[in-house]
Every structure is written in structure tokens, then in C-alpha cells.
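pinned: reference chain
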Amino acid sequence: MDASEAKRLKDLEDENRKLKRLVADLSLDNVALKDALSGKYNRP
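pinned: its C-alpha cells
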């Protein structure tokens, strides 16, 4: 593997890490919204 391939791999791994974090955040938002709509949480 030459230097350009190694840099490309590192860039792709960084992008993959960011996308995984984004999916996790959106999944949490989705669960929170579903819980709120289902009435699981009562307002004070």
C-alpha cells in the first residue's frame, strides 16, 4: 500500500466514524420522538 492509498483509507475511516456517530444521534432522536408521541412521558 503506498502513501496515497493509506491516506485515502484514513480519510474513509474518518468519514465512516463521523457517519456512524450521525446515525447513532439520529437513532436516539427517533426513539425520543417515538416515546414522546406515544405518551410515555407526562408533562409536569
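why pinned: Helices lie at 3-38. The first helix runs from residue 3 to 38.
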